[in-house]
Amino acid sequence: MLAGRCCNDNSTPSGRRNDQRGLSFGTEMRTILKRIVVIVSLLLATGRVWGNADSLLLALKGTMPDSIRLTVLSDLCFEYVHSNPDSAFYYWQLQDRLAQQLAIPKYTANALNDLAIVQYYKGQYSEALINNKRALAIRRKIGDKQLLMSSLNKIGLIYQELGNYEQATAYHLQVLQLATELNIPANVSLTLNNLSYVCQHMRQYAHARQYSHRQLAMAQQAADTFQMGVACSALQGIADAESRQDSSRYYGEAAYRYFKQVDASLEMAAASNDLGLFYRRIHRNDSAILWYRRAWQVANEAGAEGDAGFYAANIGSAFVDQMRLDSAWHYLAMVQKHIGQDTKPSVLKTLYGALETYYVLQNQHDSAIRYMELYTDVLDTIYASQITAQANELLARYNADKMEQHITMLDKQTQIQQLQIRNKNMIIVAMLVLVVLAGGILWLVWQRRQMQAENQRRIEQHTQQQKAARDIIAAEELERQRIARELHDGIGQMFSAVKLNLSGIAHRAHDKGWPDEQLLDKTLQIVDESCREVRTISHQMMPNVLLKLGLAAAIRDFVNKIDDERLKISLETFGLNQSLGAETEHIIYRIIQECVNNVIKHAGATALYIQLHKDDESITVTVEDNGCGFDAAVAGDGVGLRSVRARVAYLNGKVDYDTAPGRGTLVAVYIPLKQYETTT
Description:
Blueprint: H1 27-44, H2 53-60, H3 66-80, H4 85-102, H5 105-121, H6 125-142, H7 145-161, H8 165-181, H9 185-201, H10 205-221, H11 225-241, H12 245-261, H13 265-281, H14 285-301, H15 305-321, H16 325-337, H17 345-361, H18 365-409, H19 416-512, H20 517-541, H21 544-549, H22 551-560, E1 568-574, H23 582-603, E2 607-614, E3 618-625, H24 632-635, H25 639-650, E4 654-659, E5 665-672, H26 673-679
Parallel strand pairs: 1-2
Antiparallel strand pairs: 2-3, 3-5, 4-5
Helix pairs in contact: 1-2, 1-3, 2-3, 3-4, 3-5, 4-5, 5-6, 6-7, 6-18, 7-8, 8-9, 9-10, 9-11, 10-11, 11-12, 12-13, 13-14, 14-15, 15-16, 15-17, 16-17, 17-18, 18-19, 19-20, 22-23, 23-25
């Protein structure tokens, strides 16, 4: 099927699965500490203090115990970790300096924990892993289970980022045990979600299902609608991976309902998009479009422009699959307007694949080739990013292993030789990764050259088709001109001579009292009418007014000759002050002439509205009548419609018919002037 490229992957821009995988389980504790900071600051500092960066900075200027000051510095570090990592690191340094002065293990572990958070958000996973493990060792000795649980959770999440799912599972299971012992349902629920996520990546779908069902049961018992939606969303992902269609639809719809109940806009939009993907896979595009539109509408209302663009691209792609090109263009053009440097490759891939197929179906081969090249470039980018990410992941794991070995063996001089051997082996692995990466890049280059050769072949084929079309239309115009001259100079002159002779006979017959004068007068009227008809046909086939006065005057002259008692015609023209070139004006004149003749012959209309609008970029022609209309699917192969489409295609334009039996017809023609000039 042509639209095969339009299908997008299963990723969603919001990253709905595992969006609850936060770094810290200490949210409740952090909230309590902030409240203490606010109360103490109100007592010790001047002015009012609120729980944000400004209030914390104000509190820091006041006098307070060292333990509270450490908490303030920790909170400042956390406040700036997203927006300004350098400031976060600065406040961590102040926290670490004070913790070293106090020399209390708990504060030392907290400082290491905060440093690991900063490193995590800067993408320094290996360093974050080391410092979290150092904090973990101290917290094990202290015996604070809640702080211990926080460190274990962070280490598990870092191993997830590094792709070491076995280690991630081991740490998450320890977190689950502690959260169950401490009876903290929120932490149990989040950990079950993390374990389900890890098991999915290891393709252990049975285990993933068990964890998600357990999370769903807990959420239902606690009446936590949002977590119910998270669990159902995970279960849908598992069902998708196992190709269980009924379960996938059931859990997808359940997730949507739960998120809708709590007005979780982004999650609701992502759930709608997932259902759209589900129906797309089973080739039920009508249902897919319905869910895609819901996702797009919710994302728009929530102000999530990036997500809305992704969903709009999916809608356009689905319409292309159905060959509903007008509807597809509406959404694809909408996405094109908002493309920028930060547009995600998944959006571009869907958009360009759909546009390539759209222009193939429109027989606009230049545009199709251009979007095929853009689609290929995006695929190259995604493939190169995947290779680079895999290489970085291996190197990061290598660095993490190396640093862990360095810490654990630093005081064991007898094992230095074993460490060196391992390092050499890891270097060899890294070199192999680089070799694989280089091979991948070479393969991409070869593929690109093959694609360029294919593109060149298509361009040459398209050029030949354009030349053939141009020759056919030129030959047709020459033949019209020849026939018009023959009518005017040949048959027209003969009719004029016949009329002259008959007029002489009639004059003599009148003088002599010819008994059949009435018959002779009728014959003269027929000859006179025939002369006018020949003259009219001649002018229609080669209108002199078009050559002398231009397109607008020629069309007005043409419609003025139509009986206005039978058909009221309204003509409006804008911007046609300058000539468009003889060839372009002839073709547009023929298009309008064919449309009007179709209305006269078939529509039974009483009113006709014609509008020509020209601006710097295009010409737009609309012809609308109030006639009986027709079924475009049945009449689409008619000679008249094919003639109009052929002429419009020659000018690299497009034509749309909006009609149905009983409600009239609207013909809209769009011709891009700049594109036409470059191709001709």
